[in-house]
Design a protein that fits this description.
- By secondary structure, the chain is mainly alpha-helical.
- It has one domain.
- It is 57% helix and 0% strand.
- The protein is built from three helices and no strands.
- It has helices spanning 2-24, 40-50, 67-79.
- Helix 2 (40-50) crosses helix 3.
- The chain is flat, with a radius of gyration of 16 Å.
């Protein structure tokens, strides 16, 4: 029982980022049911600005500095009136 508990805890940790990423994008479709995160629009813009990433680190790494400030500055620039 000890090995199974350790295994499934580690498996959940490893799968958290790809699962959150895959499941979260379904909310882009209005017919998707479920409670949408309050920051969904902001998160979608943030990921659109990043464009691509290889999932070599957890999703939380995308909120670390200096990447976060750089990406937010890019979003503000795109949203500013021309």
């Amino acid at each position: 029982m000890g090995i199974a508990t350790s295994f499934f805890a580690k498996a959940a940790e490893v799968n958290r980022s790809p699962w959150s990423l895959a499941a979260g994008f379904y909310f882009a479709y209005p017919q998707t049911r479920g409670e949408r995160p309050p920051d969904l629009a902001h998160t979608a813009q943030y990921f659109a600005e990043i464009e691509t990433f290889p999932l070599l680190r957890p999703l939380s790494a995308l909120q670390e500095e200096p990447l976060r400030s750089h990406m937010l500055a890019g979003l503000r620039t795109k949203q500013s009136p021309a």
